[in-house]
Amino acid sequence: MIYTVTFNPSLDYVIQVDDLTLGEINRTTKENIYPGGKGNNVSVVLSNLGHKSRALGFKAGFIGDQLEAMLNDFGCDTDFVPLENGMTRINVKVKSTEESEINGQGPAITKEALDELFGKLDKLGKGDVLVLAGSIPNTLPEDIYERIMEKLDGRDIQIVVDATKDLLLNVLKYHPFLIKPNNHELGEMFGVKLQSDDEIVLYAKKLQEKGARNVLVSMAGDGAILVTEDGMVEKTLPPKGQVVNSVGAGDSMVAGFLTGYLNTGDYKKALQLGTATGSASAFVSWLATKEEITALLTKPASEYGL
Ligand SMILES: Nc1ncnc2c1ncn2[C@@H]1O[C@H](COP(=O)(O)OP(=O)(O)OP(=O)(O)O)[C@@H](O)[C@H]1O
Ligand SMILES: O=P(O)(O)OC[C@@]1(O)O[C@H](CO)[C@@H](O)[C@@H]1O
Does the CB atom of residue 251 touch ligand 1 within 6 A? Predict the structure, then answer.
């Protein structure tokens, strides 16, 4: 079974404001509300690609209830821990001449609620896949992903971590199956600005030296570079298209990569499917469907087990 964990899920309010001006009343020309949070997005796209998963995390207030209902409508199984106080956040994504995002702080997570989540995670075992994705509310300790991985260490669970800075660096000693920083996040972790593919590969390998098994570095419109545990270094370029909403492109890439890998056991195919899935989501108003993804594949979908 695949499990995703989103510590700070959201509803995403995606609005088009043609000419955003700070300090003025701005009017939208388009608005939509989608379920959000990185792990939840991975669950939605996995479901679109035919993989069942269970979305874990926390929900609070009526926004949390709505989030869960929307995820269930999109075919995702959820098992959220309810929080007694606070409200699941609403993240605002503004599409104008540029894309801007305002992400909420999110509700406080109590020790009891955290224990309940750990109780659910304790049931995972051999053959399960766990995706830990996104930021954590500032009420939680920075080592929370590390604690989860320490608890699950040695159970033969394939763990994917999509996080930044110390949240990611601290888990590497537990040998995550896959990590997916983008090129900016990779540079930030080492305090450098990465200028070339060679530099990206060099720093991806440094993350492997610290314990990561496979490192997938996404580069938005420039595609992605994968460095695998068996020494393969592979770059893909994204298909051409018009970006409509790139929120969730990275999460889609993770879902596509996992699907490709689980269906074929082939890292190269996983990278190709991951790239097409990321781009397919960037080219539509929300996370891509299977049809939208397969339309961007250069080989028959059956080659990826779809
Ligand atoms: N402008 C674009 N054109 C084509 N493909 C894109 C574009 N932006 C993203 N993608 C696809 O999505 C993948 C992931 O994108 P990106 O590197 O932006 O991830 P990210 O930074 O984790 O994104 P997010 O946090 O918004 O989900 C890219 O490797 C590419 O395949
Ligand atoms: O605040 P975080 O956890 O870093 O990111 C949250 C978020 O921006 O990530 C998703 C896209 O990847 C959105 O659905 C969501 O709003």
Answer: yes
